[in-house]
Amino acid sequence: MNQNLSQELDRESLNQLSKEQLVEIIIEQNRVIRELQKTILELQQEVERLKVSRDLDSKTSSKPPSGDILKKSENKKAPPQEESNQPKKKPGGQPGHQGKTRKGFGRIDRYEILRPTDCACCGHKAFADAAIKVEKQSVAQLVERPIEVVEYQRQTCVCECCGNIQTASWPDDIIPGQDLGTRLQAFLGWANNYAHMPYEKQQVLLWELGQIEIGLGTLIATNERIQTAIEPSIIELSNWVKQTQPNIHVDETPWSVKGTKEWLWVVANSEFCLFTAADTRSRAELEAILGTQYQGIIVSDDFSVYNGYQAFAQQKCLAHLRRHFKKLIQLPGLHNQAIGETFVSLIDEAFRSYGRWFQTLDSTSYNDWVNKFKSKLQSSIDQWIDQAGATAGQLLRSLRDKAHQWWYFLEHPEVPPDNNQAERSLRLAVTKRKVSGGSRSMERFQHTANLLTVVQTCRRQGRSVIDFFAQALIADSDNSQSCPSLLPQY
C-alpha cells in the first residue's frame, strides 16, 4: 500500500492540491479499499472455517469421544420440563430389552460348613447333628496369597531293580533357570499388554499378591521372552491371512516411535485380529500386509489408499460418511445444510434397516426396503449434485461414482456397512499408546503389535490370553512342544 496514505488529510490541505493530485489520491484509496475488502473476505472465510474446526467432535469428525468433554459446560443444565402426560423414563433396562442375570460361577472350589457354636438361649454348645435348615451362598474370594513360592527339589535316584541312575524331570509349568513360573510370567504379559500396567505397578501388584520383590530387569525380560515365544504364531497367522484371504476389516492409527510418527495397521474380523507395525500409511504397506490383490471383501474407511486396490469387493464405512455430512451441515455455503440433513437421514435409515435385518434375518422385508431405498438415494443425488458447492459436490460425486463400494451391503447384508470391527480392535492399541507414549524403536513397536495381536485374537476366539502365553513359553523352551496357533477354527 502507498505509504503516503498514512499522512492525515484535512480539508485545508486537500484544497491546496491540484485536480490531478486529488484524482490520484482517490484512485489509490479505491485500490487500497479493494485490497482491504479482499483481505476482510478472506479473514471472514478463515474465521468461519476455524469455527467449524473448533466445534467438531466425535459425531462430526474422526476425533475420539474422549475429547468431547473439553467442549462441555461447567455449568449444570436445568432439567428439561417433562410433559405432564409423558411419564419419566426410569434408569436401567427398558421394556423389550433382553436382560442378563448372573447364573453363578459354574463351579465350587471349597465348601465351608457354618454351624452355631453357642446357644443364644441357654448358652450350651451341643446341637443336633442334622440341620433343620441350610442356606447357601456362593462367594468368590481372594485367597490370602494368590502367589506362592515353591522350592522344587529335583532328586537323582538309583533304580533298585536294575541300578540305573535317573534324575526326575522338572514340572511343565516351570522353566529351569527362571525365577517366575510360566503362568506367572503369562499373567504379567497380560497385565502389561491388556491392562496396560507399567512395570512399577507390576512390582506393586506382585508384592500385594505374594509379598515378593521382583526387579524391573526381570519384568522387562519376561515381556521380551513372551514376545519371542509368540513370534511363530504371529508369522503363521500373517501367512494365513495372505493365503486364505477371508473377509476383513482394515484400519490404521498413528504411533510414536522415538518422536517420529509411524503407523499401526490392523486387519480383523470376528475370528482374529492381526496388528502390523509400519513406516507409512501408503498402498505399499497395505500390499505388504495383504498382497498385491485380495480375493476377499475389504471393509474400510474412505481413505484414499484403499481406492483402486484390487480386491474382490469393498464396503466403505457409512459411519465415516455420516460424519462428513454432519460436518457439511455446519459449513457455510449454498444448500450445505439441506444436503447434509438429507443424506444424514438416508444413512440413518440404512443403519436402522440393516439393524432390523441383523436381528430378524428377514430377507424378504429387507429386499423390499433395498429397492425403495435405491430409488430414493438416486433421486436425492440427482436433485442436489448440480446445485452443490465444492465440498458437498465432492461427497455427492463420491456417492455416485463409488456406489458399488458405499452400498455393497445392500445386496450382501452379511457384510456390515461400518468399520466398527477394526475401530474397536484399535481401541486397545490406542489406550496402550496413550499410557506408554509410544515405542523407542521399530523393533519394539513390532513386538507391541505382536503382543496386541495375541490379546485381541484370543478375546475374539473366547480363549484365555494367560493360557496362550503360558503354552507359548513352554513350547519355546521345549522343542518337543508345538507352539499354540491363532488360526480361526472354522
Automatic annotation (TrEMBL):
Residues 51-107 are annotated as: Disordered. Residues 51-60, 69-80 have a biased composition (Basic and acidic residues). InterPro entries: Transposase-related (IPR052344), Transposase_IS66_central (IPR004291). It comes from the Bacteria. Residues 181-442 form the Transposase IS66 central domain. This is IS66 family transposase.
